[in-house]
């Protein structure tokens, strides 16, 4: 693809979205400062018009400033990360907002210590990744603070279920080459709780000369202003997208009825449940609970299931 479309149009990827302005990078690595207009067409129905990760067609506008344009077309998205919107606070009446698109994998960043590994949180993110159909990569940072062997043992239930894990230290650099290879050639959305070292990790990945700035690092945590995702190039070939935390993701499609399907290791033992609609919580002769007792299903994962189940409305 040479990045040309029509006579003067260029195609590119939206790298940044802020206050109605978009930065679009074309195939020649030029950045175009763009707006949308009434004639902007989209292949994504009534979803958010433009999001980070979108492939768009830009029509250059005349003017002194170089590399400015309008977005004339938004290409169909292969995947989206969404968050719920407060209806009272947005005029468009949009219920969900696409915060990033065309993502290849969800990177779940956790910490081995300070704060300690929070498996419940990893499981919540995994439920989201299964529900959204996004392959997950579990990255545990700060391995310099713990015994690596102990950590590997704690992560065994994930490896056993086919989830990829990667143990790193943004500080010492341990495991960073493996992480780079897992990110290579992909658009990866990073998520994780405050303090796990997500910003430090991203800084290290993109190189010291492109430090993550205040807007990116979630400086205004708790305040719902930094909802804009930003895409950053990882040297080598790949992009990372920094996103707001999981609480912002749209989980409204996850119900007590379908939660069990987002725990892949339940699928096999579930066939032995006495009731086809078994929720694996209180029913007698439950195949999943039996599997937990036999050690075929990890008890911690099952506890996460029950905890998430409780938070969902009946
Ligand atoms: N020991 C150790 N500390 C680390 C490592 N990576 C990051 N930290 C420290 O952990 C703290 C939190 O790091 P941040 O990068 O700000 O964490 P964050 O996840 O981006 O948190 P928010 O910015 O609040 O979203 C900082 O004091 C870092 O210096 C690591 O690999 N090992
Ligand atoms: Zn059951």
Automatic annotation (TrEMBL):
Enzyme class: hydrolase
Domain EngC GTPase: 101-247
PROSITE patterns: ENGC_GTPASE, G_CP
InterPro entries to which the protein is assigned, alphabetical: G_CP_dom, NA-bd_OB-fold, P-loop_NTPase, Ribosome_biogen_GTPase_RsgA, RsgA_GTPase_dom
Protein's name according to its UniProt entry: Small ribosomal subunit biogenesis GTPase RsgA
CP-type G domain ranges (all copies): 92-249
Cofactor: how bound: Binds 1 zinc ion per subunit.
Pfam families: RsgA_GTPase
Gene3D superfamilies: Nucleic acid-binding proteins, P-loop containing nucleotide triphosphate hydrolases, Probable gtpase engc, domain 3
UniProtKB keywords: Cytoplasm, GTP-binding, Hydrolase, Metal-binding, Nucleotide-binding, Ribosome biogenesis, RNA-binding, rRNA-binding, Zinc
Cross-referenced NCBIfam families: ribosome small subunit-dependent GTPase A (TIGR00157)
Binding site for GTP: 141-144, 192-200
């Amino acid at each position: 693809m040479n990045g040309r479309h029509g006579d003067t149009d260029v195609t590119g990827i939206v790298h940044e979205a802020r206050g109605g302005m978009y930065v679009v990078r074309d195939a020649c690595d030029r950045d175009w400062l763009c707006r949308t207009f009434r004639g902007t067409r989209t292949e994504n129905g009534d979803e958010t018009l433009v999001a980070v990760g979108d492939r768009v067609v830009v029509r250059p506008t005349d003017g002194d400033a170089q590399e400015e344009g309008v977005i004339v077309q938004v290409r169909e998205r292969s995947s989206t990360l969404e968050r719920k919107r407060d209806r009272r606070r947005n005029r468009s009446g949009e219920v969900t907002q696409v915060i990033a698109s065309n993502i290849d994998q969800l990177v779940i960043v956790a910490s081995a210590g300070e704060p300690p590994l929070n498996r419940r949180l990893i499981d919540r993110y995994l439920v989201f990744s299964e529900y959204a159909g996004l392959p997950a990569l579990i990255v545990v940072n700060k391995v310099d603070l713990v015994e690596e062997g102990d950590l590997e043992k704690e992560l065994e239930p994930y490896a056993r279920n086919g989830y990829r894990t990667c143990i790193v230290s943004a500080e010492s650099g341990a495991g960073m080459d493996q992480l780079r290879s897992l990110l290579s050639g992909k658009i990866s959305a990073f998520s994780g709780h405050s303090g796990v070292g997500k910003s430090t990790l991203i800084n290290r990945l993109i190189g010291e000369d492109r430090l993550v700035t205040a807007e990116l690092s979630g400086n205004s945590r708790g305040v719902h202003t930094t909802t804009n995702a930003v895409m950053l190039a990882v040297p080598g070939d790949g992009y990372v997208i920094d996103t707001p935390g999981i609480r912002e993701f749209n989980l409204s499609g996850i119900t007590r009825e379908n939660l069990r399907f987002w725990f892949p290791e339940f699928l096999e033992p579930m066939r032995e449940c006495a009731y086809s609609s078994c929720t694996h919580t209180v029913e007698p002769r439950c195949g999943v609970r039996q599997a937990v007792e036999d050690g075929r299903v990890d008890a911690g994962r099952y506890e996460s299931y029950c905890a998430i189940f409780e938070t969902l409305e009946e």
